[in-house]
């Protein structure tokens, strides 16, 4: 098994820089519920890879604007959105804490922030519930819980 360690994906950020209530917050526009967290920082602050992995997508992606998807250990995909710019290449390996982009306001962001999400390709069926889009909880992991477990 490959170990899974997570780093906070914004340089010098602490848990005081993210909104504790954004994960699975309802009435979140077109996406209905919010499937990640916002980490607030000044525009241009380095965005760091939260884990070792392979860049499987970089480019524009709907409301996320400029985004990066990284495939990490245990078949998890790490999603970084609202970037001002990226500095990674598709298919390349990145290390945890490596700078992969800069905090920005692309997509539907109204202020500088990183939308950080974690998805699993292996469904966690025990997470299914009757909340709005509760079946999707099998595939989306609360980043706050994962980040705090590493602190």
From TrEMBL:
<feature type="domain" description="M23ase beta-sheet core">
    <location>
        <begin position="33"/>
        <end position="119"/>
    </location>
</feature>
<dbReference type="Pfam" id="PF01551">
    <property type="entry name" value="Peptidase_M23"/>
</dbReference>
<dbReference type="InterPro" id="IPR016047">
    <property type="entry name" value="M23ase_b-sheet_dom"/>
</dbReference>
<dbReference type="InterPro" id="IPR011055">
    <property type="entry name" value="Dup_hybrid_motif"/>
</dbReference>
<dbReference type="InterPro" id="IPR050570">
    <property type="entry name" value="Cell_wall_metabolism_enzyme"/>
</dbReference>
<protein>
    <recommendedName>
        <fullName>M23ase beta-sheet core domain-containing protein</fullName>
    </recommendedName>
</protein>
<dbReference type="GO" id="GO:0004222">
    <property type="term" value="F:metalloendopeptidase activity"/>
</dbReference>
């Amino acid at each position: 098994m490959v170990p899974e360690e997570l780093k906070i994906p914004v340089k010098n950020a602490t848990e005081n820089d993210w909104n504790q209530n954004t994960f699975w917050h309802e009435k979140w526009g077109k996406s209905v519920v919010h499937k990640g967290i916002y980490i607030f920082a000044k525009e241009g602050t380095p965005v760091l890879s939260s884990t070792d992995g392979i860049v499987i997508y970089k480019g524009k992606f709907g409301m996320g604007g400029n985004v990066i998807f990284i495939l990490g250990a245990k078949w998890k995909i790490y999603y970084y959105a609202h970037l001002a710019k990226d500095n990674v290449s598709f298919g390349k390996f990145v290390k945890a804490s490596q700078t992969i982009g800069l905090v920005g306001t692309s997509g539907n962001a109204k202020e500088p922030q990183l939308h950080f999400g974690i998805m699993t390709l292996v469904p966690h069926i025990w997470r299914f519930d009757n909340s709005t889009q509760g079946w999707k909880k099998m595939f989306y992991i609360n980043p706050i819980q994962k980040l705090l477990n590493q602190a």
